[in-house]
Amino acid sequence: MATWELTAESDRREAVPILRQLWTDADPEVVLAWTGEEEYHLFGRFDGDELVGVAGVLVADHLHHVRHAWLYDLVVDEPRRGEGHGSALLAFVEEWASERDCDRVALASPLDREAVHDYYERRGYERRGYVIETEL
Fold first, then answer.
1. What SS3 class is residue 99?
2. pTM of the predicted structure, to 2 decimals
């Protein structure tokens, strides 16, 4: 098993079906485009040649917030869930962020995703507040 950054368009294209398991309404070409954004880093977890999970991260320094890695996406291909790939990807992201002088890894999750919240809390993450937004 190995994890590395997916930088080539062909590698990112291979990740799109897995990402769409999280972003089910997103157009595949839109997903591919955001994975190619300059500051976005997409990591793939492999079992041999098979891509089994992905994590998408952006490092940020915003105003009064500490330097952090924002975890936009963490998805393991459905048939491979429960095998430890998500935990391995999360550990990889945490180490990668630490090497880039981040003080934390942060993410947002919909309120109704209690299983997701429990997943992160079992790994030491804490609920700190709410993301409050409006559509324009």
1. helix
2. 0.90
